[in-house]
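hey team, just a heads up i'm posting the complex here instead of the shared drive bc the drive is being weird again. everything in one block, sequence lines first with there labels, then the predicted structure for the whole assembly after. its two chains so it's a bit long, scroll down
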Amino acid sequence: MTDTTSPILEVDNLSLEFHNGTQRVYALDKVSFSLARGETLSLVGESGCGKSVTALAVMGLLPRFGARITSGHIRLGGTSLVGLPEREMRAIRGNRIGMVFQDPMTSLDPVHTVGMQIAEAVQRHKGASRQEAYGRARQMLDLVRIPDAGNRLTAYPHELSGGQRQRVMIAMALACDPQLLIADEPTTALDVTVQAQILELIDELKTELGMSVLLITHDLGVVAATADRMMVMYAGRIVEEGPVERIFAHPSHGYTAGLLRSLPGHGARRRSPLTEIAGTVPRLDRRVDGCVYAPRCGFAEAGCDAPLPPARPVEAGHRTACIRAEAVLAAMQDNDIVRSWA
Amino acid sequence: MTAFLSLRGVGKDYPLARSGPFQPRRWLRAVDNVSLDISQGETLGLVGESGCGKSSLARLIVQIEALSRGSISLGGVELARLGKAALKQARRDFQMVFQDPYASLNPRMKARAVIGEALRNYRVGDAAQIEARVEELARQVGLGAHLLDRFPHELSGGQCQRIGIARAIALNPRLIVADEAVSALDVSIQAQILNLIVRLQAEMGLTLVFVSHDMSVIAHVADRVAVMYLGRIVELGATETIFAQPGHPYTRTLLAAVPRPTPEARGRRTAPAGEMPSPLNPPSGCHFRTRCPHATPRCSDEVPALRDIGGRSIACHHAEALLSPVPAPEVVHA
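-- predicted structure starts here --
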């Protein structure tokens, strides 16, 4: 009997380094989170913050050389994934975790039909016959609302639109009934109307199939539209985590505040200067004990350089790594986005 | 106010490969009969989805592409009539900022050389004067002088985009066309670059054509917005008007689809049905009719003209009916 209350995915104290002989990059620093069954958890942050690396670590797709998990655990429904032999990891990938990437054109094989690519996944993971696998492929194309699925099985990726290609990727990821779907910027390469269609599709399928979704995105609008909970990442660390409504209404980390303030197009102050986040993201080639965001943070004070205490809860289910959380929250009360969630 | 940049019936067709040796050549109509007037110092936002023709139109304006039909005049001079030498001189007045900050810079040229290239091409002073001007430009765009001797791969995306902007303003142009200039940047860097563009525009009195797929960026920078769909402008008007009360069914679809970080976004179903038709074979009449909930037989028979309704221009046969639930303000002519 499967346990329905325990989380589907648990990441505990995960630290990860990349090195190439001369240089070392501390890509993830003590990342901990869990994902409940049927939940959509969004991982937000800018380029290089570690959100995709987190997904690759869960999938066991880190480069074999040059990447090293230095501490921590990843558990998928009780199975520990760190250090699992590649053979066993391969059985989990696709079967229990499905993944959708940003660019559907480069993720699909251009020389094979989409039907064959979905069927191949089913044959490999489920040991199905060719005929069964093609039947399943057809069923999956129906499921992802591709019209005229029977005929589209024989289409090549270049014959499909960007939105349809992403639907095919989703069909492939879900063909073996995974418990967890990891979607890494699934709509970033798509137009807004197509993005809306794909986000709705993922949400509907999540309910229909009872999956959990880990949605990686840089877009706070996408988070607001789809996620139950969100985690904000910066420079390899989770800086704030909590329910979506809670964080938008009570941002409690200097970086979350910075992201919300820098968004254009909100409120009536057109062409008035946007609040910039000064400077650029740090190089992660040395360990930082204090807050990594402090050098760019408008709320920083002397204590921010001191070794950081573990992320603390500000309310049930809402934690922040910011020692200036109260000041941040007070200053964000006049922000249009924050006010809209109050 | 007289128009500074004026487009009349502008069109662009791209030839497609023949399907066979004796087959007729086919054409893709990327831009279809676009007429626009932009006054000096104004910012026009061009929005639409992939394949709507917004980038093609931007490239036509800066004369990177040749017009198939129509005319473009800048400051009263019709650009297509200029000879090669005269066009080269005219180019000092209009420059472009591109989307990909890395791809649009020569990887083998240092920042200093990139920014100074146009100055040398137009022989603006001697080497020392050019050098001084490059350093002044770097200051103007917030690029540290120590970064001038770096190659693009040694710089961040935001820094490269500052170089792209410095290069564009080097010759004191009067018009800048920015094609998705902040789309490749993270939000915090995007805010820096948007602020820079808005500040430079005010300082230099620039006219700006700002192309973007991002409605919130357009809402922030543009005075007026032109919404494009399959090569045509479907709606054109003041930013406030269009965002507060979109008139064309496509504008409504587009605005509704943008996920905004507000509570209204939660659980809302706003995705339009269907996909954009192929630009190779657009629907007859109104191009949007195949996805439009208000389409009638007239929409397939007759191309809707861009007409003035409710304080902006809309290319829709049913615009009056669509705008009527919210009464349009009465325009009283004294």
